[in-house]
Design goal:
The complex is a heterodimer of chains A (916) and B (256). Chain A contains 28 helices and 13 strands. With 916 residues, chain A is of the alpha/beta class. Chain A has 4 domains: 17-96, no CATH class; 97-102 and 110-577, Cytochrome C Oxidase, Chain A; 644-771, HUPs (Rossmann fold, 3-Layer(aba) Sandwich), CATH 3.40.50.620; 780-908, HUPs (Rossmann fold, 3-Layer(aba) Sandwich). In chain A, a hairpin with an 8-residue loop joins strand 2 (625-628) and strand 3 (637-639). In chain A, helix 4 (117-146) packs antiparallel against helix 5, helix 11 (348-362) runs parallel beside helix 13 (401-426) and helix 12 (369-382) runs antiparallel to helix 13 (401-426). Chain B contains 5 helices and 10 strands. In chain B, strands 3-2-1-5-8 form a 5-stranded mixed beta sheet. Chain B has a 5-stranded mixed beta sheet with strand order 4-10-9-6-7. The chains are: A alpha/beta (916), B alpha+beta (256). The complex binds protoporphyrin IX containing FE and copper (II) ion (CU) (2 copies).
């Protein structure tokens, strides 16, 4: 399959306008939009019922349905999801590269519509973990009620509402969107793209989750939906307003899910970096491509099922009412035709995450990469042929049972292949038991139990006994909690450094794992026993003989509660105050580890080139991808996994601000160390040394890890010498612009590339920049005030001497001390001579490796010193005078003019006759 | 392979895990008593399934535990493992072996299913009606006077066919001791075949969420010797007739 370059072919820097409107603007709009939506939603049914004379005028569930839908649209329009499209539709000028709502520059940007996939990823994750808490509270309420037989806390209806809300919130608002959120952040980077294919659609997908989620989570306030997350008819048709909210909300979150899936699909198909063939895609990408297909084909079915139920409720259609010719079982067929694939929607991305983590922390290639990829696709395809295994006792056509049992058994095979391949991955590896790895290993254990109990349920005669009992509850939780939730935790810990730029606390991460792992098993494993014994699911009241076990289970959940609290504390604290994360804390190989943590606004400064598989651990020199520098800085390869040292080769340009700025920028992108090699021959050695000291001082001050040495010989010798001594991953070559550069004329770039086999980045430095004193606090800005002393050996020696002790940037000011008018011929002769002397002195200093600049002014020494201090920021001033010219008075005047800046007075001997 | 340094420790761990697994299976009373032929068929099939799944579970867990112990990286060891991308023979093995186990299970389960579906000629037919939130059982075929009870009575050793209807939402008739369950669906007559083989009283539980009273929608399944059962039929019919045939007998009145 062909691969394509990312579509964002914008050059190196995206200069973009940032939208300035404040949060209050957007949220006021959202509020107004919602209110208008409610009003419109009320008006529409009222108007039509009134006009057509329908009785009664007030049919609550009908009104609620329309109101909830229009209020949602109003909210989305208000918060700004449609702004860009509306502008386009209304014929205003829009720019396709409009990035005004892109990227986060403060916390506020997370609370409004944003088109940056990384911002959206974080918006997703924070939102879903909020709903995780909501769903968890429902779960604890359910367990509290179940801790003793009989009904204590809540009545039957409320109890039904609790477990229905628990399941729905966890499925639709936690697991499914959590995977969408993680993938949103990571997947585009993994495939080397700058964003998702449709950033504005991406934002809309996220924002739909807010109204949809609130409807699902808040319905207990008005009387929850209570027909279970499966919402079987006719029970659901009997339901109250909560049921209406459920049906509308499922449409909303379903739409969100479909749009996200289309976005992933297009992103994966069209935006992979050059070289990212399908067999080089990380398994997370495979998993998400497959999951997206499941979502796109499956979700319309649950949407359909809920629409039909809704119509039965508000429009008196009779889809599922046998009295009106409807079919009750049909609901289940349609529902499970989505909801079985949905269990894989909730599992395949997790499989992907696990594959990534196991490879990284085992330091081994994924075992059976292709088998894992194929089994993912196989599971997805087969997943559409097993839906009726949820219906073995439903009263459906009985011939369907054996075929559905067989397809379900077949699907267990690729699932098994996955588990064995993961074991093959860790076998003989070098396991690093960091928190993400613990979750991954814990996942294998729990998921195997869940998969095996699934096989029990697939076996029809066994299922007939166990279906709708606690055995199914055990199965669900082994696959959802031990499966999906474990993988989400694994992924969150794994990518936390990448997403937040900070490290989480490892110890508390592990405590969280162990509490949850043990808590999960002691909570859910006994449920198998309850199911075998015949305790039905979805009941508040149960037989006395199950009392002890249920009490034990309820108590066991405390472990998970504590673990979860620790998790949230760890995440919150680490996000705010954790140590800064390096680029690649886990030494991973996939592309997201080749960019900074967190990545820059558009992820990559240049398009990466994928050159190999994603998991080539243990293969000498193998690499997954290389990132090239943009043309403006010479092209060439920039980074590669685990590369740490950049060799900087520069001679006269070594202390130029262009080069130092580039190094500073580069160092912000990752854990780079810079080793300078400054080639010099013979007498130049000292000069090179001084320039290097300046550069190192500037960089040290900026916190950049840099060192280096002057190497006798040419640039190639310098490179070879360093490469011999330490592993170098990249070379940065600073030269004058082509045409003015001796190095370029000698094909230095090519020769360096051949000599090292490494990618070379060329940094072009203008001549005047090379000699100007480097800005930066590591260098002392020295003001030199001299007139007649210019050009003397003494002056040059004195400055070089000082430069040897401390990196200097020299500003030389020559006072003319004219007594008469400045426009006479005499005056200009004096001036010309002074300029000449000053230039020669500066030239000499630069040759000696001391960056220098200067000017000649009309005025006396005191004025010159003042200029040095005020205009050039001199921190120290040296006043040079010729021996025998006195000058005590001058020194005093200078001291007085620039106090408290320190002034040194140096007396030198007159120069040898000119022309030397 | 057999002479690899991993073999011995791996065997030890496998034995330990097996011992624990087998102990967990044997020492705990996992299932309630069985009271039907269907339950017996279920039982043998379940034993096979438990054995097969225990095998997989033990292998996976042992390898997992051993790997964590044996392959843990030493502190400061930043090296990579061997670049082992796969092993076709191994991959085929672990695809084919479970496939065989699963295929055996599939065939066996299908046979059980077909056996369970077989109708005996001398079966007793009882009508079941479910509604929120109660069960009622009606004898119409083979009795002179139809009658209705709140509990289900079954003759020992003879097949009973339950013909089930619901008047409102879906319910599900579930008797754990029979290992049987069948949804009762409005608009449909579903059936359940049971050959009770143990005298006793067993709970009938509604297993499909049906509303507020779902948790309390219970009845009893009472298996009696054929003689007692005939006696029960006779008593119940007499009772109906004495009550003018209009009001059905209550369950308690019908209890022998
Ligand atoms: C080897 C793999 C699996 C097999 C053979 C399997 C089989 C089954 C079967 C036959 C049922 C129907 C049980 C019943 O209601 O009587 C079931 C229920 C269920 N399974 Fe699985 N399953 C497998 C993996 C998974 C996975 C990976 C997930 C999700 C991550 C999952 C989630 C569920 C859920 C949520 C239900 C219950 C739905 C409900 O009634 O509320 N299963 N499974
Ligand atoms: Cu399923
Ligand atoms: Cu019920």
């Amino acid at each position: 399959m062909a691969t394509f370059a990312p579509t964002h072919q914008e050059p190196h820097h995206h200069h973009h306008e940032v939208d300035k409107r404040p949060l209050s603007y957007w949220w006021t709009r959202a509020f107004v939009g919602t209110i208008v939506g409610i009003a419109v939603g009320f008006f529409i049914p009222w108007f039509f019922r009134f006009v057509f004379g329908m009785e009664p005028l007030w049919v609550p569930e009908l009104y609620y349905t329309v109101i909830l839908s229009t209020a949602t649209l109003g909210f989305l329009a208000g918060i700004g999801c449609f702004d860009y499209w509306m502008k386009y539709i209304l014929g205003h000028r829009v720019s396709y590269e409009d990035h005004s709502m892109h990227g986060a520059y403060s916390w506020r940007d997370y609370f409004k519509v944003n088109t940056d996939h990384k911002v959206i990823g974080i918006q997703y994750m924070v939102t879903v973990f909020f709903f995780f808490i909501v769903g968890g509270v429902f779960a604890e309420l359910v367990r509290a009620e179940l801790s003793t037989p009989g009904q204590q806390l809540v009545d039957g209806e409320d109890y039904n509402g609790l477990f229905s809300s628990h399941a729905t919130v966890m499925i639709f608002l936690f697991v499914i969107p959590a995977f969408a959120g993680l993938a949103n952040y990571i997947l585009p980077i993994m495939i080397g793209a700058k964003d998702m294919a449709f950033p504005r659609l991406n934002a809309l997908s996220f924002w739909m989750l807010i109204p949809g989620g609130l409807l699902l989570a808040a319905s207990p306030i008005v009387g929850s939906y209570s027909a279970g997350w499966t919402a079987y008819t006719p029970l659901a048709v009997q339901g109250s307003t909560g049921q209406t909210m459920f049906e509308v909300a499922v449409q909303i979150v379903g739409t969100s899910s479909i749009m996200a899936a289309i976005n992933f699909m297009v992103t994966i198909f069209t935006m992979r970096a050059p070289g990212m063939t399908v067999w080089r895609m990380p398994l997370l990408v495979w998993a998400n491509a497959t999951t997206s297909a499941l979502v796109i084909f499956g979700t319309p079915f649950i949407a359909g099922s809920q629409f039909m139920t809704l119509f039965d409720r508000i429009m008196n259609t009779q889809f599922f009412n046998p009295v009106g010719g409807g079919d009750v079982i049909m609901y289940q067929h349609v529902f499970w035709f989505y909801s079985h694939p949905a269990v894989y929607i909730m599992m395949l991305p997790g499989f992907g995450i696990i594959s990534e983590i196991l490879a990284t922390f085992s330091r081994k290639p994924v075992f059976g990469y292709r088998a894992l990829a194929f089994s993912t696709v196989a599971i997805a395809i087969l997943g559409f042929g097993v839906w009726a295994h949820h219906m073995f006792v439903s009263g459906m056509a009985s011939w369907l049972r054996i075929p559905m049992m067989l397809t379900t058994i077949v699907i267990a095979i690729p699932t098994g292949v996955k588990v064995f391949s993961w074991l093959g991955t860790i076998w003989d590896g070098k396991l690093h038991l960091k928190t993400p790895m613990l979750w991954a290993l814990g996942f294998i254990f729990t998921f195997v139990i869940g998969g095996l109990s699934g096989v029990y349920l697939a076996t029809v005669p066994i299922d007939i006994a166990l279906t709708d009992t606690y055995f199914v509850v055990a199965h669900i939780h082994y696959v959802f909690f031990g499966g999906s939730v474990f993988t989400i935790f694994a992924g969150v810990y794994y990518w936390f450094p990448k997403m937040t730029g900070r490290m989480y606390n490892e110890t508390w991460g592990q405590v969280h794992f162990w509490l949850t792992f043990v808590g999960m098993n002691v909570t859910f494993f006994p449920m198998h026993w309850l199911g075998f014994q015949g305790m039905p699911r979805r009941v508040a009241d149960y037989d006395e003989r199950f009392a002890a076990m249920n009490e034990f289970i309820t108590m066991s959940t405390a472990l998970m509660v504590v673990g979860t609290l620790i998790f949230f504390a760890n995440m919150a604290y680490s996000w705010a105050k954790g140590p800064k994360a390096p680029w690649n804390p886990w030494r991973g190989r996939t592309l997201e580890w080749l960019v900074s943590s967190p990545p820059s606004t558009f992820n990559f400064e240049a398009t990466p080139q994928v050159v190999g598989g994603p998991y080539q651990y243990g293969i000498e020199g193998a690499r997954h991808a290389v990132v090239f520098a943009p043309e403006e800085i010479g092209g060439g390869e920039l980074t590669e996994t685990e590369r740490r040292t950049i060799l900087v080769v520069a001679s006269e340009t070594v202390s130029s601000s262009t080069l130092l700025d580039e190094i500073r920028r580069k160092s912000k992108e990752g854990p780079w160390r810079f080793t300078f090699a400054v080639p010099a021959k013979g007498r130049d050695h000292r000069s090179a040394e001084r320039r290097l000291q300046v550069a190192l001082a500037v960089l040290a001050e900026a916190g950049v890890d840099a060192n280096g040495s002057v190497v006798d010989g040419g640039p190639i010798e310098a490179i070879e010498k360093v490469v011999e001594e330490e592993p170098v991953q990249e070379v940065m070559l600073a030269t004058y612009p082509s045409g003015q550069s001796g190095w370029m004329e000698n094909d230095m770039l090519d020769r360096a590339r051949k000599a090292t086999g490494l990618g070379i980045t060329r940094v072009v430095v203008r001549r005047d920049d090379a000699v100007a004193p480097a800005p930066g606090s590591g260098v002392v800005a020295l003001g030199v005030v001299a007139n007649d002393a210019l050009g003397t050996d003494g002056l040059g020696a004195a400055i070089r001497n000082r430069a040897d002790q401390q990196p200097l940037g020299v500003t030389l000011i020559c006072p003319l001390n004219l007594t008469g008018p400045g426009w006479t011929d005499d005056a200009s002769k004096v001036r010309d001579e002074a300029v000449d002397r000053a230039q020669r002195t500066i030239g000499d200093l630069v040759d000696a490796g001391v960056p220098a600049q200067g000017e000649v002014i009309d005025g006396d020494e005191a004025a010159a010193a003042r200029v040095a201090v005020t205009a050039y920021g001199a921190e120290r001033v040296i006043l040079f005078t010729l021996r025998g010219e006195g000058g005590e008075a001058t020194v005093e005047a200078v001291r007085a003019a620039i106090a408290p800046v320190e002034v040194e007075h140096v007396v030198v001997d007159a120069a040898a006759p000119a022309g030397s | 392979m057999l002479r690899s340094r991993h073999t011995l420790p791996l065997i030890v761990i496998t034995l330990v895990v097996s011992a624990l697994t087998v102990a967990g299976i044997m020492l705990i009373e996992w299932t309630p008593e069985r009271a039907s032929v269907q339950a017996d068929r279920y039982w043998v099939l379940l034993l096979f399934l438990v054995a097969a799944s225990a095998l997989i579970f033990v292998i996976v867990t042992a390898v997992l535990i051993y790997s964590v112990i044996a392959f843990r990286a030493k502190k400061g060891d930043e090296s990579d493992g061997p670049p082992n991308h796969g092993n076709t023979a191994l991959e085929i093995t672990w695809t084919v072996l479970p496939t065989i186990l699963l295929a055996a299970m599939g065939v066996w389960a299908s046979i059980v299913l077909i056996q369970n579906d077989r109708r005996d000629a001398d079966r007793e037919t009882i009508e079941v009606t479910s509604q929120q939130f109660a069960w009622s059982f009606t004898w119409r075929d083979g009795v002179r006077t139809p009658f209705e009870t709140g509990d289900l009575y079954l003759p020992l050793g003879r097949q009973v066919e339950l013909k089930m209807r619901s008047t409102d939402v879906i319910h599900s008739l579930y008797v754990p001791e029979f290992r049987l369950k069948q949804d009762v669906v409005p608009g449909l007559t579903t059936t359940m075949l049971v050959n009770a083989n143990k005298v006793g009283t067993y709970p009938i539980i509604c297993a499909e969420l049906c509303g507020v009273g779902h948790g309390t929608m219970r009845a009893r399944a009472i298996v009696m010797e054929e003689d007692d059962y005939q006696q029960f039929l006779a008593d119940s019919q007499r009772e109906v007739r004495t009550q003018d045939g209009s009001t059905p007998a209550t369950a308690s009145a019908a209890t022998p």
